[in-house]
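Hi support team,

I submitted a single chain yesterday and got back a structure, but I'm not sure I'm reading the token output correctly. Could someone confirm the output below corresponds to the sequence I sent? I've pasted both exactly as they appear in my results page.

Thanks,
R.
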Amino acid sequence: MNRLTTTAIATLMALGLAPAAQAEIKIGATLSATGPASFLGDPEAKTLEMLVEEVNAAGGINGEMLELVMYDDGGDPNKARTFATRLVEDDEVVAIIGGTTTGATMSIIPVAEDAEIPFISLAGAVDIIDPVKAWVFKTPHTDRMACQKIFEDMQKRGVTKIGMISGTDGFGASMQAQCKGVVADYGIEIVADETYDPKDADMTPQLTNIKNTAGIQAVLNPGFGQGPSIVTRNYKQLAVGLPLYQSHGVASKGFIDLAGVEAAEGVRLPAAALLVADILPDSDPQKAVVTAYRDGFEKKTGTPVSTFGGHAYDAFMILKGALEKAGAEPAAIRDAIEGTTGYVGTGGIVNMTAEDHLGLDLTAFKMLEIKNGDWTIVE
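Hi R., thanks for writing in. Yes, this is the structure output for that exact sequence:
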């Protein structure tokens, strides 16, 4: 069963269908709740369900109930496009949240643009919002921003030559290209450049090539899914002995569990404040938001919070604010989303404009290091 529907009176995932509640505002989602990207999409789906329930229990939006019509695309871009079309044409939603992966997002964009329905993506590639598309927004930090944050940290450590091993999936390939585009700005040279297929079970040959390249001082792995965990394990097995950086695409406890605590020790990556809620200073404006979301999510689901669920939280809250301000007409919703300013979310403080449909800068990223199986803040 591909259709998942959340209403004011029932939440249905994967199992069966039930009559819809008397909801008055329909919002749509297509997410990778199952499949290889489920570690991203599952917390996103659970977050949206939780938030819709909370809003409806509190009386809805301006007195109107919400209905969330949600499909599981399994990470398949073709299914994501089909479901986006169904959301627009059959379900008549006023906005769409989703696109767990970059590939799925890119397939949804033309549907949303053609139908003139606001779409808030949960994927990382900068190409989603650069160049700006009138009806498309996103909440995660971009891959270009991740490259810049990582290179800032390398620069502080005196690193000038690096090796890079990238996944060939949409996210990995995009981040690889973005890193190559900005690396020279930090006086850093990529002297070894390897890739792997997301389905590969061993990256030892590529890492051996990197290890044997003279002058390398650190290694960067753009990618998401199980690939970076395998890279991290192989990296430890080969005793490369240099700093290893991962992307924000693996910013969850699941990455540490898959890689293994010993192998993950010392790995650095940029991520949102959500992962380090407890150790944020009380003066940090995000602390109350991320702590409340984390506590609510973990109580509701019995599973650890992740930054990916946080992307869905921010998307929903931005959409909620737009609905409260502008009502349920798609064009008015679009304008209100674009006018979002000062929104304190799990990913940072969002200030969107007509020229910026993300609204975050590098200060929204924390540089984290894994120590003893947990996250610590480098800065």
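A quick pointer for reading it: The longest strand covers residues 189-196. Let us know if anything else looks off.

Best,
Support desk
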